[in-house]
Design a protein that fits this description.
This protein has strands at 28-30, 33-41, 44-51, 59-61, 65-73, 76-80, 83-87, 92-95, 101-104, 111-119, 128-131. The strands form three sheets. A six-stranded antiparallel beta sheet has the order 1-2-3-10-5-8, with no helix packed on it. The protein has a three-stranded antiparallel beta sheet with strand order 7-6-9, with no helix packed on it. It starts with 27 loop residues before the first strand and ends in an 8-residue tail after the last strand. The protein is globular and about 35 Å long. By secondary structure, it is mainly β.
Length: 139
């Protein structure tokens, strides 16, 4: 009778030194809905954003980052500079850095989108608010 020896091999994935794993942040609640950081690395951050029906984020601007928004479900009213557009499933837009912008859900179901931020600094404190429905602007 032949004997079999079972072996297991484990492969290890080595990341390049310029990529580090930072983990995933918990969902952060906001008066307009919530966001979850899905992934971040040097120079980029990916978020899932959910906006409640009838709510909107502040009219804001960022000095250090640009943003790409891709609608997953619902309807987005996007103000970017002087332009306003409506986006639905699988449509997207680009917000250049130093450009005033606002995201709004004019629909009756939650707006869900993926936001990809690019820039040298991606902190939440890089937000200049011009108008805000929730009194978060500085006087």
């Amino acid at each position: 009778m032949a004997r079999y020896q079972e072996t297991t091999q484990t492969e290890t994935l080595h990341l390049p030194s310029n990529i580090t794993s930072r983990g995933i942040a918990a969902t952060e609640l906001r008066p307009w809905g919530a966001f979850t950081v899905l992934e971040e690395g040097r120079g980029y951050k990916i978020k899932r954003i959910e906006v409640k029906p009838g709510h909107r984020l502040s009219l804001q601007m960022h000095h250090h980052r640009s943003e790409h928004w891709i609608v997953v479900s619902g309807t987005a009213r996007v103000t970017c500079g002087e332009e306003e557009v409506l986006l639905s499933n699988n449509e997207s837009t680009y917000v250049p850095q130093c450009t005033s912008h606002r995201l709004e859900n004019p629909g009756v179901i939650p707006l869900i989108l993926i936001e990809v931020q690019n820039g040298e600094y991606l902190g939440e404190d890089d937000i200049i608010r011009y108008q805000d429905d929730y009194a978060r602007t500085k006087d």
